[in-house]
Structure of Lipoprotein:
Amino acid sequence: MGVQVVQTPNLGEILVDHNQNTIYRYEKDATNPPKSNCVEPDCTLKWTPLLTAEVETTNGIDAVLLGMTERPNGLRQVTLNGHPLYRYVEDEKAGDAFGDGLDGVWFAVTPTGEKARG
């Protein structure tokens, strides 16, 4: 999966994928049990679920916090502390975080699954 922790000047410690794309959480998702509420094309075409067949541990993230939830299409989405994880399509290059705070419900995610301090 290749998720890692990076320190940013504006958001503090956040998660990024193997291409350094910011990882987000959605406030309208359920966390106990984890369930994505971003399942319709108008959402998933902007916010792509972070999918994986296997969750890998990485430096800076407590492996106990990593998990998966099954999406309606049968694919498995990575979760962190119960929060399903996403990428934002308008983040075009490493370090972009244009989705943070968007609509008051999308936030870059910290290594513990909390909202970044942005």
